[in-house]
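[Discussion] Sanity-checking designs against the backbone

I'm trying to build intuition for which residues belong where. Below is a structure token string of 375 positions. I'd appreciate it if someone posts a full sequence so I can compare it with mine line by line.
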């Protein structure tokens, strides 16, 4: 008799878990992979959209291309979850699987920052990247403020990549000398796990004349006055770009799965307090940054747990590992190899930046595209 596994969310974690279960438990599991969207987009592709290297259609990978034995994809929206009964309700059906894995990611709470919805721009969604791309095309110089509005947020290097790539774009257009770039973050360092990467990013910004204010937060913006509101003062801007506040999807709050804003899991097994219910990726609180490669690592932990529950034996991966590519502009890319469960504490060695890692980053995406979609 096969075990039924339902994966809610087809991002990095959900796709990798489905692929791994298909490989390791062929004939022993039936996997249903659910996502409300019809296509997958790599997070780093949104920078390509923002800076005009690809359009929205080019970065979409339709889920209909999934070809994993024993895995069925369904485009449905999750409406309710009863974790105690492992009961899932979508806009198309009702399910009672043996195992539920929640991988629904994080949503953006644009309204959490006063004024942001009316006067700010973001690039963490494809639609937001398109809107900001068009705004930048009309930009003729001035004060640009890019701010991280809350912690945690997905892909910690992304704000720094964006400001460095924006510098390159403004130089190419001949308006960099007419512009002031300022990045603001509540974090103490760009990539806290990697002092080496943080130093490299801070030096890159300084070399380009990009102002950097760390360990400060913006509490709101006034779109009419065009000022950003810090705790004790205001600063003017002509273009405001924000990394939106992140939040867990409402359906997970309603299911009673959250604690302190995110889904509570055992940090070794990634199981929730409910038997047979796991959570991975951006929706889960694991003490590890929210990024695709860490969701991928978490998928291997849960896959090991499912194998052990079915076969009665097996080791668990430690999880907490991942690599992150960081765009520095001018075709240079750096790489951080993070291990949050390393002996002696988290480590994050940094390599580059150089064009070598740009090619490696492209191969990273191509390999996952081939693994998950066969193309």
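Best answer:
Here's mine. Compare freely.
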């Amino acid at each position: 008799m096969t075990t039924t596994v339902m994966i809610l969310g087809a991002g990095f974690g959900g796709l990798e878990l489905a692929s791994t279960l298909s490989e390791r438990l062929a004939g022993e599991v039936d996997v249903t992979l659910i996502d409300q969207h019809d296509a997958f987009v790599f997070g780093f592709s949104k920078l390509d959209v923002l800076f005009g290297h690809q359009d929205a259609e080019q970065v979409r990978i339709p889920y209909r291309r999934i070809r994993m034995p024993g895995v069925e994809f369904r485009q449905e929206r999750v409406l309710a979850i009863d974790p105690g009964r492992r009961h899932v309700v979508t806009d198309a059906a009702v399910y009672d699987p043996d195992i539920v894995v929640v991988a629904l990611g994080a949503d953006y709470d644009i309204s959490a920052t006063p004024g942001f919805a009316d006067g700010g721009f973001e690039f963490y969604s494809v639609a937001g990247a398109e809107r900001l791309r068009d705004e930048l095309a009309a930009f003729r110089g001035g004060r640009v403020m890019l701010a991280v509005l809350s912690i945690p947020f997905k892909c910690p290097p992304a704000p720094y990549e964006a400001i460095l790539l924006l510098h390159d774009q403004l130089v190419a257009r001949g308006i960099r000398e007419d512009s002031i770039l300022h990045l603001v973050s509540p974090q103490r360092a760009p990539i806290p796990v990697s002092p080496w990467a943080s130093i490299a990013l801070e030096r890159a910004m300084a070399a380009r004349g990009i102002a950097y204010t760390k360990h400060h937060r913006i509490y709101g913006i006034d779109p009419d006055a065009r000022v950003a509101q810090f705790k004790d003062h205001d600063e003017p801007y002509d273009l405001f770009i924000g990394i939106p506040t992140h939040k867990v999807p409402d359906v997970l709050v309603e299911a009673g799965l959250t604690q302190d804003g995110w889904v509570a899991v055992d940090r070794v097994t990634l199981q929730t307090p409910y038997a047979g219910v796991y959570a991975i990726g951006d929706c889960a609180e694991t003490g590890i940054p929210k990024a695709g490669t860490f969701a991928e690592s978490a998928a291997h932990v849960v896959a090991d747990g499912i194998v052990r529950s079915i076969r009665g034996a097996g080791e668990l991966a430690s999880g907490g590992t991942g690599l992150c590519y960081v765009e520095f502009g001018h075709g240079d890319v750096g790489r951080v190899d993070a291990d949050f469960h390393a002996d002696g504490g988290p480590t994050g060695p940094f390599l580059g930046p150089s064009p070598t890692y740009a090619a490696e980053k492209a191969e990273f995406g191509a390999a996952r595209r081939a693994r998950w979609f066969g193309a």
